[in-house]
Amino acid sequence: MALYPEYPLISDRLRLRPFTRGDVDAVYTYRSRDDVARYLFDVALSREECALAVQQRIGQVALEKDGDKIILAVELLSTGSLIGEVSLTWHSADARQGEIGWIFNPDYQGEGYATEAARALLDLAFGPGDIHRVSARCDVRNGSSWRLMERLGMRREAHFREHAIFKGEWDQEFVYAILRREWLSR
Ligand SMILES: CC(C)(COP(=O)(O)OP(=O)(O)OC[C@H]1O[C@@H](n2cnc3c(N)ncnc32)[C@H](O)[C@@H]1OP(=O)(O)O)[C@@H](O)C(=O)NCCC(=O)NCCS
Predict the structure, then answer these.
(1) Residue 69: pLDDT above 80?
(2) Which domain covers residue 23, as residue numbers?
(3) Do the domain assignments include residue 178?
(4) What is the mean pLDDT of residues 175-186?
């Protein structure tokens, strides 16, 4: 089933909305940082690379076929500041599998905003999206990310050791997941 959500998604403190051209500076403030990029597949981005990333994200608002992504800007309702982004990737339309991800500006970390935004995206995935299972993965050293997965009620399903090269070294990766019925019964 394709998913064409109605935006914005609103939670207690946040607005999740499609990216716009005006978001480049806000995205640059966090995507240009080495500490933010440390466990991402990307390196820290230049302003031009941020502009390109934002341009791509503007069209990433619906799931129509395998591999499509929804990537949303996360804004504080109180100020309108863009504080980060969350993503939902459709891996298998047949088996209704999704993958969730997050990147937040360090100035706004430690407040539960990423958890709140991820919950809003999981409500979309398991509600209107009718996705069956949502997974997430991270480097095992990325404690902020896997603690977030556990706060969401996701289960650690895998600990891969040296199954890929990450930034020039053997990786170690956790995979977490939650099923639709588990999310709905929480
Ligand atoms: C991963 C990332 C999004 C987590 O951000 P975060 O701010 O730690 O996550 P949350 O917004 O859910 O906040 C949780 C923290 O705030 C605290 N907190 C404060 N108020 C809270 C609330 N109302 N609800 C939940 N947590 C709250 C929690 O105790 C927790 O702290 P802890 O991790 O020290 O235990 C962030 O570290 C990040 O963007 N990293 C760089 C990019 C990256 O690595 N992305 C993931 C790639 S796999």
Answers:
(1) yes
(2) 9-131
(3) no
(4) 97
Q: Is residue 150 part of a domain?
A: no
Mean pLDDT over all residues of the chain? 97
Whole-number pLDDT of residue 93: 86
Q: Is the CB of 113 under 6 A from ligand 1?
A: yes
Q: Does a structural domain hold residue 167?
A: no
Q: Band the pLDDT of 58: cuts 50, 70, 90.
A: very high
pLDDT band for 157, please (50, 70, 90 cuts).
Answer: very high
Nearest C-alpha neighbor of 115 from the set 38, 13, 29: 13
pLDDT at residue 1 is higher than 90: no
Greatest Cα pair distance in the chain:
44
Ligand 1 and 59: CB distance under 6 A: no
Which residue is closest in CA terms to ligand 1's atom 37?
144
19 lines ligand 1 (CB under 6 A): no
Residue 110 within any structural domain of the chain: yes
DSSP state of 152: T
Domain count, the chain: 1
User: CA 135, CA 1: separation in Å to the nearest integer?
Assistant: 19
Burial of 30 from C-beta contacts in 10 A (0-12 / 13-18 / 19+): buried
CATH code, domain carrying 19: 3.40.630.30
Rg value, the chain, Cα? 16
Q: How many of the other CB atoms lie within 10 Å of CB of 59? A: 11
